[in-house]
Amino acid sequence: MEELKDRILDLVANTRKGTLDRNDIAKKLNLTHALELAEFDRLMDAMEEEALLFRARGNCYMTREQYGAAEGVLHINRYGTGYVDREGNASVMIVPARLNGAMNGDTVVVNIDRKNGSDAYGYVTGSVLHILKRAKTTVIGTYIDTPRGPRFWPDEEVFRGNSISIQEPEGFKPLPGMKVLARIDTYGNPLELTWLKTLGFKDDPGMDLLSVLLDHGIDPEYPEDVMKQAEAMRQSVSDEECEGREDLTSVLTITIDGDDSKDFDDAVSVEVTSEGWKLLVSIADVSHYVTEGSPLDREAAERGTSSYVIDRVVGMLPRQLSNGICSLNPNVVRLTNTCEMNVNTSGIITSFRVYPSYICSDARMTYAKVNAIYDGDQELRTEYAHLLELLEALRDCADSIRAHRVAEGAIDFESDEADIRVDETGKPISVEVKQRGHAERIIEDCMIAANVSVAKLMKEQDIPCIYRIHAEPSEKKLNSYAQMAYMLGHPFNAKNGVSPREIQRYLNSVEHTPEYPVLSFQMLRCMAKAVYDKQCLGHFGLAEQEYLHFTSPIRRYPDLIVHRMLRRYYFEQDYSHRDRDEELVHRYAESSSERERAADNAEYECEDMKKAEYMSTRIGMTAEGVITSVKNFGVYVTLPNTIEGIVRVDSLYDGYYRYDERRLALINDRTKTIYRIGDTITVKVLAASIAARTVEFGVVRAGGGKVKEKAETGKPKHRTRSRAARKAEQYGTPLNVKKRGTSSGKGRNKNGRSKKR
């Protein structure tokens, strides 16, 4: 059957499109026997159903490529718009009305609109033709009270148009408000479900976050066999386990992490040399404990990454490992793999070596304490006097590494991360910008240096590996950015592409302008998303030819695989599994990229939900914000504390606004009022939906000015207030807009480490 399918596709693909009907195909394939023809007809029907073949005029056939269709994974953003990436081509953007039932993560076939130019960000538009594979296998819902008794009501709106049939266990008694996780047995109408687990009740503390996590396939609970293996794990290192490893227990070594961190997978040490510094980055050897094919390994591969949402962590590994034997806790021996780098005073890594080791961390330091020490806190400097020399050498070494990396063209995107605090019931009590100091940058620089060094080693040794790659931005996106930058008064030359150094030079040139936050944020939007790949294709943002993730094996599966391959091929020189490992790293790279995306989406959804909940108690509050995006239906405004909301065009009561896509602006031709990216405006909170995770703003007077108006007759406007003017005052509409700005961004995890790298 598969052979016949390949023959059909090959024949149609190599014939002028739309010229072969079903009979023509059968004849050219010499299918004459009745059984052959019956099988052929069934296969042709199936290929149409799978969107492998499409009918043209006269019932003639075309392949996907001939028809203008493409296959890919659908990613839906928080505004409901879908995107399908195509290798070597512009991504396909799909508005909600054209998703045709497809959901985030589904593998779909999309129809690309003909005579279709790209939008302002370099996308082409299209629609979903066929869903090849569903990503979502479960659904979460709440039982609601109805005259016929409690009824299962899905949390996701996309399912609510279907009638629902749920198979419940014998003796199960649903109650109004009960939250349930169910398996999707059959998509369609009815949507057929089977009860899997009762989660609790919708108003239980933390139930909102748990529902989001489970919806993205992130389960805080581990399977029984995984927990059994974790609980049996020895919590101390034996002498036998240290054999064959370098003893670094006498080397002054520390960990530096966030105040709330409990999993320490990296430790640093530095020594001043005649040439500069000897920097040691020692990473927990998780691969020693998570052995290939074990329950722990299978679960870690399935999860792909730890997930950090608001006030909780769902670890890739159980706490017995992440907080126990694998964590580089102070004053206990731990197994590690060390990257030892010789760094000269110019920040260049002149040589390095990687080897198995064991350490005993001398102190568990926090970013807050180290930053305070650098700022001159005398009490802390006295308490940690024995570490001052190390901390100062570490700062000087890391700063030199960063200066060299930036000089080589690495792009430094500074973005604000939200620090959301909740009370014991999970209610948000504050939303502020998370502070990031010198210590956070130092650790980031040391980790990047180690990642680059290990990547060079793996490439030189031709070891099967998972690399971290970051493609250069598309020409279309850069051209669109150049158009926006020109409108903001800061021209950007994007002809024939640009290098990372040119981008950083441009960002440096506008750093002290009011428009810089928006220019930096929009440049970040131009960047491709970093992903995992078995090929070493370079990292554009870091301006590195070789890069991977080596430094966080407790919380990222690709790092664990790098450690495993490093031991197998470099330390032990075992090449017996090469063919199998090449296939494994390819599969793990793809799955890890998907799980990283799921974890990021869960984090963003939880943040948006808590921000909406925070603003729901502040209806009527006014604040100054910056326009960070303009659409035909309104403008998005970001407040200094990172909360984003929309000002809908239909809330502007001073007249008709048209959308100027070229200028990325909403324009009122009568009043000459313009809303564009980078403008600072004062807004009032009109509404906040926790369920939809959205905030809506209205615009109020800014600075007490008046709208600039010009009468058609050239005479002053009549001073009597019109009905529109009274409405404007009542609802709060734009009366003055000034340019300035701040922006927001997301990109760091709970430990303060960059996730965009």
Cα-atom Rg, whole angstroms?
A: 29 Å
**Mean pLDDT score:** 87
Q: Using the alpha-carbon principal axes, give the shape.
A: globular
Separation, N- and C-terminal Cα atoms: 45 Å
Classify the secondary structure makeup into a structural class: alpha+beta
Question: Ranges with pLDDT <50 over ≥5 residues?
Answer: 702-748, 750-756
Number of domains: 6
Which key features would you list for this structure?
34 strands, Arc Repressor Mutant, subunit A, 5-stranded mixed barrel, 757 residues, OB fold (Dihydrolipoamide Acetyltransferase, E2P), alpha+beta, globular, single chain, 6-stranded antiparallel β-sheet
Describe the structure.
This protein has 757 residues and is α+β, with helices and mostly antiparallel strands. It folds into 6 domains: 64 residues, Orthogonal Bundle (Arc Repressor Mutant, subunit A), CATH 1.10.10; 66 residues, Beta Barrel (OB fold (Dihydrolipoamide Acetyltransferase, E2P)), CATH 2.40.50.690; 67 residues, OB fold (Dihydrolipoamide Acetyltransferase, E2P) (Beta Barrel); 306 residues, no CATH class; 53 residues, no CATH class; 122 residues, OB fold (Dihydrolipoamide Acetyltransferase, E2P) (Beta Barrel), CATH 2.40.50. 30% of the residues lie in helices and 26% in strands. It has 19 helices and 34 strands. The strands form 10 sheets. Strands 26, 27, 28, 32, 33 and 34 form a 6-stranded antiparallel beta sheet that branches. A 5-stranded mixed β-barrel has the order 3-4-5-7-6. The chain has a 5-stranded mixed beta sheet with strand order 9-8-11-12-10, covered by helices on one side. A hairpin with a 2-residue loop joins strand 17 and strand 18. Helix 5 packs antiparallel against helix 18 and helix 12 packs across helix 13. The longest helix is centred in the last third of the chain and has 39 residues.
